[in-house]
Prior knowledge:
- The protein has helices spanning 2-9, 29-34, 51-64, 84-96, 114-132; strands at 38-43, 71-79, 99-101, 106-109.
- By secondary structure, the chain is of the alpha/beta class.
- It is globular and about 35 Å long.
Amino acid sequence: MADAVHAGATDDEIESTDVVMKQALEADASDLLAADGLILGTPENFGYMSGGMKDFLDRTFYEVEGKIKPLPCGIFISAGNDGTGALTAIRRIGKGYPFIEVQEPIIVKGVATPDQIEACRELGLAMAIGLEAGIY
């Protein structure tokens, strides 16, 4: 799913948007301070976001508080259950940054179908085009 989002965001149609893809444990506050938008992806673990994603949000919140403009955000979740616990937690925490959802989240339950992988690609493409066009 993450690879499909990245492929969409780096599509040949995109000319002036720089895309950085990092795992949550590798990302830090400087990444958020430099970002014009972001897409958060996580597996669902025990009905919640991954520990790595929670760690990223915990580590960066106070460092960027009051220093970032509202960031357009997309979310995708690979769920073993229904994904709602992870989504609710990301949304709740994201409001404090502030992250502004600009697209519907993608929640895939079980193994992703080709249509769901395409939806992930389109999520990345739409975010990059929106940023490039100044919509977000």
